[in-house]
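We were asked to recover a plausible sequence for a given structure. The inputs and outputs are reproduced exactly as logged, with field labels preserved.

PROBLEM: sequence recovery
POSITIONS: 502
GIVEN STRUCTURE:
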């Protein structure tokens, strides 16, 4: 690691210290930024920096893109089986280094170790899945209306892709995007979030070890200030043909605008404001277990988390009582502590936003049943598990992504009323419903406006299921059969006129 040993004390020890890199990775080399500037990587559980990474800016983009493009020219011709084998090798190496990768993840995101393991298991689902997908990319052949013609389609990789990824699930987001791109025959440049570059660099190191050629997966790190400049340079570079972004709707619109100038293909996984509908006839144990895990996953910092929990009046009091009792049991602490069941939020901005949302709700008449405050503990960014009732549509907390361990409850009477309320948002990422009435469930599946519907199910993200939203939650699909790899392919149509076939 560059100069960090003297400047910072590493707060953990790895079994395989080779995994730890804090320079950008371009064309198989560990490189500094042209400016030589760096930014600090902070442990959210203590607020202390523990390493630094290059602050790349627009001046660093061309070399990285040219490397990716040079690699693309040969990588596109590698057989799908060879691409699958590299993805499988990458998958095995990540699994072999699971303990260490989890440690880095804990010290970058703050999530508890058990959740870090969970993220790695979830994420290697993508490498495994896309290894399989690589060999199943196929075109078609058919006879059109004109009988002397034959039409065929082939699928070809788009070219260099750029991935702009968030900090909440840095392993899952990289493997979901890079898995699809590399399976398709594209190369990729990743711009990790400033909070989680080291996790991403460890994955790049393992991709290199897995045999991917130089330039197949480049990583350019940068800080918060230079993120817009670096991202814009990537979106505008003529050799970048595709951009995949996961993050806020506000930034997603900027990315779409930048890419629209050159009609680049874009996948946008944007904000969520996901409703949960729990009906009187639901299995309360099932709903509790599923939604509790969903809500408190990574201290509420998931785009598909439960943002608004609607409970029907017949079970409302009982459900709330159980929710409060379970929430009281949460042990908030550093992700590396064995007793911890919920870590800090990842950034101080997360604390500020949660406080502002709670304050706004309170000022508009909501009741705070528990929590509502930051926890001052060891310098970390901790927030109390918080339960709020009496939430109304005019409150910011019911309009915005909370991204903190704050649960909001709303009582409802009828299916019609709750569907209207659930859909009353510009977002459409995921919705969840709990009922044992099959007809109602089917209606909810059809009537809820979201890209993913959990039916008696909380978190349903999986490599084999298409992931993606509608409305202002974005467009395009990641993961799932055919659709995710298709985001990185073009379809070329050939038409052939056949003579002598009477
Ligand atoms: O936060 C967004 C991604 C969460 C997931 O993949 O389940």
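RECOVERED SEQUENCE:
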């Amino acid at each position: 690691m560059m100069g960090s040993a003297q400047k910072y004390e590493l707060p953990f020890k790895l079994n395989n210290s080779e995994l730890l890199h804090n320079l950008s990775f371009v064309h198989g080399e560990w490189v500094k930024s042209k400016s030589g500037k760096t930014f600090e990587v902070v442990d959210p559980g203590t607020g202390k920096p523990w390493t630094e990474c290059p602050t790349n800016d627009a001046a660093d983009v061309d070399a990285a893109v040219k490397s990716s493009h040079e690699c693309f020219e040969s990588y596109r011709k590698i057989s799908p089986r060879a691409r699958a084998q590299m993805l499988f090798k990458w998958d095995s190496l990540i699994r072999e280094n699971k303990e260490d990768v989890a440690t880095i993840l804990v010290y970058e995101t703050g999530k508890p170790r058990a959740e870090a393991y969970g993220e790695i298991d979830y994420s290697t689902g993508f490498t495994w899945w896309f290894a399989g997908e690589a060999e199943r990319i196929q075109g078609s052949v058919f006879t059109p209306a004109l009988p002397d013609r034959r039409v065929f389609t082939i699928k070809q990789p788009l070219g260099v892709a750029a991935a702009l990824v968030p900090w909440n699930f840095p392993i899952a987001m990289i493997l979901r995007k890079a898995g699809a791109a590399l399976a398709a025959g594209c190369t990729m440049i990743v711009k990790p979030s400033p909070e989680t570059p080291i996790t991403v660099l460890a994955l790049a190191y393992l991709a290199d070890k897995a045999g991917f050629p130089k330039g197949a997966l480049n990583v350019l790190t940068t800080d918060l200030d230079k993120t817009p400049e670096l991202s814009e340079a990537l979106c505008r570079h003529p050799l970048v043909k595709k951009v995949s972004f996961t993050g806020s709707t506000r930034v997603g619109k900027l990315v779409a605008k930048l890419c629209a100038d050159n009609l680049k293909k874009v996948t946008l996984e944007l904000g969520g404001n996901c409703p949960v509908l729990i009906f009187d006839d639901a299995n309360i144990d099932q709903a509790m277990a599923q939604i509790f895990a969903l809500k408190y996953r990574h201290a509420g910092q998931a785009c598909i988390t439960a943002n608004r929990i609607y409970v029907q009046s017949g079970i409302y009091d009982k459900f709330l009582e159980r929710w409060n009792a379970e929430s009281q049991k949460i042990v908030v602490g550093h992700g590396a502590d064995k007793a911890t069941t919920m870590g800090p939020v990842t950034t101080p901005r997360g604390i500020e936003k949660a406080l502002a949302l709670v304050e706004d709700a309170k000022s508009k008449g909501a009741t705070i049943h528990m929590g509502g405050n930051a926890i001052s503990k060891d310098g970390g960014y901790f927030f109390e598990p918080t339960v709020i009732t009496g939430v109304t549509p005019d409150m910011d907390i019911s309009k915005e992504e909370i991204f903190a361990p704050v649960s909001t409850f709303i009582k409802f009477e009828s299916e019609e009323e709750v569907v209207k309320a659930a859909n009353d948002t510009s977002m459409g990422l995921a919705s969840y419903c709990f009922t044992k009435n099959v007809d109602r469930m089917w209606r909810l599946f059809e009537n809820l406006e979201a890209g993913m519907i959990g039916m008696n199910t909380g978190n349903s993200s999986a490599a084999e299921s298409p992931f993606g939203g509608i409305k202002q939650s974005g467009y395009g699909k990641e993961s799932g059969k055919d659709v995710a790899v298709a985001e990185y392919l073009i379809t070329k149509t050939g038409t052939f006129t056949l003579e002598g076939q009477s």
